[in-house]
Design a protein that fits this description.
The chain is of the alpha+beta class and 261 residues long. Helix content is 34%, strand content 11%. It has ten helices and eight strands.
Amino acid sequence: MSPILISVIVVGVIGLIGGLVLSVASVLMEVKSDEKVAELRAILPGANCGACGYTGCDGYAEALAKGETKPGLCAPGGVDMNNELGKILGVEVKMSEPKAATVLCDGTCDKVGTKMLYQGVETCKAANMLYAGTSDCNYGCLGFGDCERACPYGAIKVQNGCAVVNADLCTACSVCVRTCPKGIIQLLPIKKKATVACSNRDKGAVARKICQSACIACGKCQRACEYGAVKVENNLAVIDPEKCTACGACVEGCPTHCIVF
């Protein structure tokens, strides 16, 4: 028998033995998947946005199957999908209050000036690293549309230099919240509440000089609110949505009209 034929036979036998070993190992070491996890995961939308507080839809499905959390946390899925999760788990679904992304800035091009001509990479993240952006306001919307490009639902657009959210399209997935380098996008209740459309924390005179609609921390809104929902903290009015009754007193009392519904 030739040496070449012997080599071929030896290699073939080794391959056969290796294949048998791998086949046996795959059976003995198989990690059996939880059918309930797979069923729950099939219903979830696959946005992997993290709005539920877990690492994507896979993490949420696993937590649901283990009883570590309850359905009703998936905002992109909506009421019907969360009810389906509840049926599988045999529990009642209580949806959290509907929310939508809200841009805490109204610094449009006609209200705030620019401090430089920017010719770099046209993204908010890049512009923010150069003197906090092109706007005179170091706290406001940069206007390059990182949030718009990140939104999988087309719910946010840059208009006149400032991002604007369409609440009817927003699913509260929080992708834009994580994308904004200024941190001026928050998830707030869709139910009519007063909102301070400003994030500037400069002192009143400086803020007013920079932007026509800036909060000047005058405190009129705080004094006007009889429910204690408004407080001026660090030169900026802050509204507690849990206490706000949408009475409109703070909106009427704001001299710069930076508080809106």
